[in-house]
Amino acid sequence: MTDATRVLVLNSGSSSVKYQLIEMTDGSRPASGLVERIGEPGDCPDHTAALDLVADELAARGLGLDSPQLAAIGHRAVHGGTRFTAPTLITDQVVQAMRELIPLAPLHNPANITGIEIARKLRPDLPQVAVFDTAFHATMPESAARYAIDTATADRYSVRRYGFHGTSHQYVSRRTAELLGKSPEAVNVIVLHLGNGASAAAVAGGRCVDTSMGLTPLEGLVMGTRSGDLDPAILLHLHRVGGLSVDEIDTLLNRRSGLAGLCGDNDMREITRRIAEGDEQARLAFDIYVHRLRKYLGGYYAVLGRVDAIAFTAGVGENAVPVREAALAGLEDLGIDLDHALNQVRSTEPRLISTPTSRVAVAVVPTDEELEIAQQTFGLVRRIQSA
Ligand code: ADP
Known about the structure:
By secondary structure, the protein is α/β, with parallel strands linked by helices. The chain has helices spanning 47-60, 92-100, 109-122, 142-145, 151-156, 166-179, 233-240, 246-255, 258-263, 268-276, 280-304, 314-319, 321-328, 340-344, 369-386, and strands at 6-12, 17-23, 28-35, 70-77, 88-89, 128-132, 188-194, 198-204, 207-211, 309-313, 351-352, 361-364.
């Protein structure tokens, strides 16, 4: 065994590159950072320059890409289609297959691929692994993954439910099992990942059986700026009657909807502040958000049959006390009993916020997608090296 125990996690998005260097022996982060506003005038011109900046920042701290301690690079990848259902060692063929998936994620996959290509140029000899946001959801049964449209048309255009935030749902469901002192196989968990983007997942014995995002991250819960579920005929109506173009409808549903569309603010802190001042519009936005959340909670309760825990994560889930309170109010008959005092406690640690007698545990588990990517990357590289 070598003493290469560090993984560099790269998240190459359309306008930013985030990185974390993670020491796998203890989970510590010797370095982390962010290059923003890629492509904007006066800022970083392109992804090549951004990755060079990351490499320079690391080198300046004696942690350069040539460090013998670096075991691998783990790349966050958004859409793996039906092809990538596990962490994948990156080869030319894998990059080509990711290119073929661009139509499914035109906003995200090109930037992911660019980041991968540049990182491979910088360190061609180092194992690099792609960890897909869709992969954890590949275990969904066909009954949950298929839309009820003509099968031939669906298959021809790869129209099915893929789900996103998979790395987070996987990490949080496992940490929740740990918090209960049980193995992931022994517990059923509903994970509520509530960030700017938001999704729910039903996880049975460590395997995802349903999730709220679909072909794209637009389906499901009310989000910061995205609508979540709606009657698909609304799109036809807006086009036929309103004369909106396809691009205008795309912008409306992805950027001018959700909390922002309902009340002008997409930040839950601002919304709760406005509610405290008696703002009716903010109140209604909050109520619509919570109503949708409760519908998914009830739906996934029935999908799972037995629920051991509900886990809240991401910016809203980890911090918004009133959202957790409203989401679970009055569900004592379902065995869900929130401890109102524990719910108020601020902490960055995974914790239980249900009463000791609550049949369903309620947990707050801060997500750590970078650590999950690093662990999956490191695990795969170790398996390959010892094979
Ligand atoms: P992203 O999807 O961009 O990764 P995050 O998981 O970081 O998002 O969540 C960002 C959102 O979390 C913010 O838009 C805000 O609504 C919410 N948020 C962050 N901190 C708090 C807080 N202290 N109280 C309530 N909401 C918060």
